[in-house]
Batch of 4 targets.
Target 1
Amino acid sequence: MNQLPIKPTPEQALAWYHDVVAAEGRLPNRILEKSALYQRLLDGKKPLIASPPLVYSYPWYSIVENDQPQDIDQPFTCAEGLYVEADGVDRVLISQSLWEVVSRDVEESLTVTWPGWRELGFVWRAWRELQPAAAAKAYLISHHDPALGRITTLAQLDAEARFQAVQWRGEYAIAREWRLGLTDEASAVDALYAFHGHRDGAQRERFLKRAIRQKLQHLGEIFDARLRAFMPDAISDEELEERVVQERTMLLGENWRVLDGQLFFDGWRLQRIAPAGLTASHYRELPPLAEVVNG
């Protein structure tokens, strides 16, 4: 339905692009490669009857044409009061764009629409949903076992937290030797670089070592602070266990939950609920190519 009769040449797509932009009363994008509309025409797809909603300032065609749930990359929470009242219209921020609120069902579900599409009967539902880690768009990377790819269980989360804590103690031990004068700064940087198993080209190695030198300085400041507080200069096993708990908390953040030993992502989804499907009337009619190209 959204396919053009032919796949246009770049010249033909550009002609149609200028025609559509003029009809919508907009200025053309000076950098065509960044124009979603031009790329759409070039791919042989019809333009929508109205400009699509925006996702992070970029045209969101799929949220109009696709009736499947789509993850909202930056989840919002109704309870946090992210509603914006303007011109008497109730609005909510979704992926950095303001949507009009049609109704608020419950605290964690609402229906919304987009200017220009409400008049066409388009409504979307946004809701909060716990998604299994194995299927969620967001994921936690498994460093303790790269073969896993993503972390999906509590046992894997705990293993990752312990791995990160042990890594932290190992990094600190290198900084401790440097601060105790047992090695120089350059050797400590090399030791930290090797500790993480980096095997990079010369240019990337220089870039990474600049970052590693900053980390070394930070770890050295931790060493100095421990001495000022009359604490042992080495990390104890008890402190390591405390660090494991901290790492676990940091991994979970605000959006991950553990239920019955499984990991879930607590996020938001958005789905078109009306109309049931698109018709030809939801796409803009284009003038014949000869008419556009020849002016």
Target 2
Amino acid sequence: MSRLTSSARAELRLSLPDLHSVRAVQLASASRSSRTDTAALDAAADGAFPSCAVARCRLSLHGGELGGDTRDASQQRRAQLQASLVRFLRACPRGLLVVHDVHALPPAVLPALLPALSEAGQYTADGVPVPAWGATVILTAALPGFDDSWAASESLLARHAKASLQALLAAAAGGDEAAQNLAKAVRRRIDDVGPLRVAAAAAA
């Protein structure tokens, strides 16, 4: 998984004035996303990664739209998500993946995202490896209890945001040991965190 360059970070900050201290590929969101919010972030991401925009190598997903009404349906959506990611990475091995509201991604679907978050991650399709490590991934999440005190330092923000997201994901998956392990797997793959207030920027 690639990391944001300094120029990409600067472009994101210019595009979204309320986006502060962005250091890498994951962003924690202070407020629940709306369609306007996600459009603003997608536009900012295109500005930060113009080569991806020109090549149409940005894939935007919405966590709340990737589940099913039953466990079987969610398993089917997991397979569909993995297939979509494989197609995207084959076409755009250094593309940009934006996952809005990752906290809303159903537990049965979430494992399909893990290879894309891993430092040396890859998928396998038809027995052929499909590397994911060259892609850049931006995650957003609405985190309960978020307040400006979290942003007093980068380390404090990262600690609170990662712990909050881990708790959300574990609770959604049932809270048992397997759920905790899944949530920890996501947390370990988050490099850095920045506060995101897209709604304020979009309304300005």
Target 3
Amino acid sequence: MEKLFPIFLAVARKRSLWRLSFYSAAALLIYLAITAGSFRYQSVCDKCGAIKNSTDWNIPFTSWCLFTQANEAETELSRVLADLKLVPPHQHHWLFASGAGNGAFCAIGPGRHLRQNINDRAFSSLIARLSSVGQSKFRDKLLTIALNPDQSLAVRMIWLDAPANSLISDWNEWVKEASETVDRGLEIRPR
């Protein structure tokens, strides 16, 4: 029996060493996934202008996703569209805007072109104002363009010379001029 004791001790040490190695490797993998494997990104809904911030937790430097965390947030524009009931209940259509992490320093997508318009309080106020003065056709035209990544540049800063009053005649005149400006912007926009 005395001769067998060292053998049992050696086997027990070997098993402990394997367990220690396994748990150490698992702990290292979890640590790397938390610190180096996260990819954070933002997406924009091209129907209502809402934003989704997401984090994919990947095995570092691979595309194998362990799990994803995401939260949706209202923007200036999505709040106005909801208040005016201009967008019916829908399933969001997310366009990737930008992201970084897990080996990528700067990833960009078409949704990035929408962010300036959807976060612009003045643009959102213009949409609400156009509704209140009966210019729904031009309002809808602006929204269609603003939520299209290939055209959204054409309506940036359109609100700068909008009338400050509620006179319908002033708004009719401004809409005519602004519509021509937007159309010209769409014509020169490279496709």
Target 4
Amino acid sequence: MVEVGRAFYDLSSGHAALGEFDADGVARTIRLLIDSSNALVLVGNGVGIGGVMMPLYYSPGKLVMQEVFWFAPKFARGLLKEFHRESKEMGASFVMLSSLEILHPSIGRFMTRMGYHPLERRYVMEL
């Protein structure tokens, strides 16, 4: 999984501004997610996705599986479908993902075909 994180970091040029890649830190984060009862981690051949389930703050009766990371360079439909299935089994009503659509517009088309719709745009600022 650390190699998947490295591949994502190398592909996503903007993330370098947030810090250097830390392989040990990635491994610790993955372990924390795996050990958590409200998190989900799926890995495959060069692909991976992880998320944490939490209540929607404005509708706490509904749970959302919030993606922490995902990397599927070939738009791994199977990976996302399994993530959807297992998230629903855990009680999630929704899955929320971010993407590198800003760098790769085809990702947005893929996400729409998978049943997602845009909801927000993510911004980042160093403190």
